[in-house]
Amino acid sequence: MEYRTLIEPDRIHGSLYTNAEVFSHELARIWYREWVFVAHESELPESGDYVTRNVGRQPVVITRGEEGVIRVLLNRCSHRANLLCQDEKGSSHSFRCPYHGWTFTNSGELVGVPFRNGYGKTPIREKLALSRAPRVGSYKGFIFASLSPSGPALMEHLGNAAEAIDRLVDLSPDGEVELTAGWLKHKVSANWKMAVENQVDGYHPRFVHDSLFSAAKYQVRELCTDSSSALVRDHGNGHTELDFRPEYRKEGTSFIWFGRASEAKFPEYVERMVRRYGAERSRQLLMDGPPHVMIFPNLFLAEMNLLVIEPIGPSLTVQRQTSVLLKGAPEINRRAMRQTEGAMGPGGLLIPDDCEMMERNQVGLTAMSPEWLTLSRGMHREYSDEDGSLASNVTDETAQRGIWKKYLETMTEE
Ligand code: FES
Ligand SMILES: [Fe+2]
Q: In this structure, which topology does domain 159-412 adopt according to CATH?
């Protein structure tokens, strides 16, 4: 596949969203090589806790071992490949394969083989441990795995996106977030890259989300216009952002990002924030709000929600969603969960509309012409900003161009 002929600075070829060969290259080059978000430490707080997830199409179990060590094990019995763990989450220091009863510790060692005599004197326990992701890293509770033994370190990969994680956890008076509200899942008949690009598309909200804007107070209506001072940012490494802070700062008040709530609604939270961060910093945090940042390839910090993208096939993606819970802020969390239900749930007013657009894109792509998708919006007015990002008006396609730049590098590097 000659990717250089399919990706140009201002347009991309439609086959990149539909071709099965492209999809399998992406699994190998992006999903099985790069850092991929797998879970949050709050989902497995105690030794023995585990959750099951996917890295690309690889089923994995993320476990916390005796010493608190987090491991990412491939969820495949080393006997005859049965899916070892079926539960979404649980707590156990060992896993017993349902097929022939082989037992593994939660660090992956084979410790039990029924009817052992059938293997004579051949040593098998030592040879048949579970496979593990060779690299696992964590930043402020966010656990990432790479199925490649080599490559850039996690912090190098995150680059400027680490600061977005800081911004999110700093909204907690304890400096920590928890992802323990449970996950909603949407199965979407669209390519995974449609989801990545849509998260940071500031052009569509005025049209796709008009029904939400007419039903509820939602700050994004005014933010995503050609005359808004909100920005789109390309942070490099494929990480991108819709930055609403310039608009919030213009108004200079807290909680615009939280349905324009007043500070008087959460006096204890505000007090705890001031105690931790001091009056000035806390005022800034409550004015700026949470980040709207897409960390390539699968973690979307969606303000008070968090979305994770899982590729299933060229035209099938699962998007999971949860509320971001701020440790030490129960009153904020209660409201955040109600917002998640209203926006993200199956009958929600926000994300189902995005999913519908992604699916219609995928149907549109079956028409043979025009073969290319245009990504030129705002090219003439983007600029390098002082935080090191490439920035432009929030409705511009700077983010999508940044994502495709990273994509091209990853798909063509030696
Ligand atoms: S496949 Fe797991 S014990 Fe046989
Ligand atoms: Fe949207």
A: Naphthalene 1,2-dioxygenase Alpha Subunit; Chain A, domain 1 (3.90.380)
